[in-house]
Design a protein that fits this description.
Elements lengths: L7 H5 L6 H7 L4 H13 L4 H8 L4 H19 L4 E3 L3 E2 L5 E2 L3 E4 L5 E10 L5 H18 L4 E9 L6 H16 L10 E4 H4 L6 E8 L7 E2 L11 H16 L1 H7 L3 E7 L7 H10 L2 H5 L3 E9 L5 E7 L9 H6 L1
Parallel strand pairs: 5-10, 6-9, 10-11
Antiparallel strand pairs: 1-4, 2-3, 4-5, 6-8, 7-8, 11-12
Helix pairs in contact: 3-4, 3-5, 6-7
Length: about 325
């Protein structure tokens, strides 16, 4: 693939201490560069604009562009032809420029997709160190032959978390004991059941591997937020976008999807989102123009996963073609 963003000429013009030079050259960001170049190939007539976004030396703007173009690329890969930031007129003569708009054959918008980020909370470094410690102990302590994933993990408040992690690994080893080939079923237990006296919460899922060798621990272990701080910010971010486009969506009878891109350490889980949004009346309180919330989550190795939450009482639902593709 011939670079279109990180060209040799562009790299030569970067200052030696530029963070963008690291993104453009070091192996750690190789997959990021591949994703970006892939996005550019999908942009068609909007390619030049996309290249300028990714050559911006402002770090927050660069990563915001990465998330915005990622959402557009997924739309285009699904066969949904969307335009980036077109001017859409309102009834009062003013206009707005949503991030992505799908137009019908008559030139009227049929879907608006607005992208927003959700950054990690202020305790991110503490959470990172906790997770890294548990990952290392799981790698060292678990028996071979398993694929294991731990989600919605929350550590107890203890004096020595390392000791508690070691005890948790011992309890997990006992729980894994009865599972052995040819069992290929997926097993699932709450940490509260596995180690009731340790104070951990979360869910562990495991199954036997088809190939022999050390157990594989998912390199991303999500850390829960007991105070709901991240969930509050999630709701606030979505509500802000929904209210911004409520009038124009109502005038055009056009559904709105808010695509939210949490940072890796923002504690947003599909189960929590479903509960807060579907069961607590969030959609009804915010806007009936808001058709769906699309969570675009970046896990390990820059692999994207999606989770779509629909508003059952939207004035116009997200088109079926979008439901099917996503």
């Amino acid at each position: 693939m011939t670079p279109q963003v990180f060209t040799a000429e562009f790299i030569r013009g970067l200052p030696p201490d530029s963070w963008l030079l690291q993104v453009a050259t070091i192996d750690q960001f190789k997959e990021v560069r591949e994703h970006i170049e892939g996005f550019i190939d999908l942009m068609g007539e909007q390619k030049a604009k996309a290249i300028r976004l990714f050559q911006n030396p402002d770090m927050p703007k660069f990563w915001d562009a990465y998330k915005e173009l990622m959402v557009g690329a997924i739309l285009l890969e699904c066969g949904i032809s969307a335009q980036n930031s077109p001017r859409v007129m309102r009834g009062d003569g003013t206009s707005q420029t949503p991030d992505w708009v799908v137009f019908g054959e008559d030139g009227r918008p049929t879907l608006i997709v607005e992208v927003t980020s959700l950054h990690g909370n202020q305790d991110g470094e503490t959470l990172r160190s906790q997770v890294e410690d548990l990952r290392n102990r799981l790698k060292e302590g678990l028996p071979p032959g398993f694929d294991l994933e731990l989600s919605d993990y929350l550590a107890p408040e203890v004096d020595d978390l390392a000791v508690a992690h070691s005890s948790l690994v011992e309890a997990l080893t006992i729980a894994l004991g009865p599972t052995a080939p040819p069992d290929r079923l997926e097993h699932r237990m709450n940490l509260e059941e596995i180690a009731p006296d340790l104070g951990f919460s979360g869910v562990v899922t495991w199954k036997c591997r088809e190939a022999e060798g050390p157990s594989l621990i998912q390199p991303y272990i999500f850390v829960g937020d007991a105070g709901g701080y991240d969930m509050d910010r999630f709701k606030s971010s979505v509500a802000k976008k929904a209210r911004k486009y409520e009038v124009i969506c109502s005038e055009l009878n056009c559904p709105l999807v808010v695509a939210i891109c949490p940072e890796f350490w923002a504690n947003i889980f599909p189960s929590t989102v479903d509960y807060f949004l579907a069961r607590c009346g969030f959609f009804e309180r915010v806007s009936n123009s808001l058709s769906s919330i699309w969570i675009c989550d970046c896990g390990a190795s820059w692999s994207w996963r999606s989770h779509l939450v629909h508003n059952p009482k939207a004035i116009r639902p997200t088109p079926n073609t979008v439901h099917d593709k996503w």
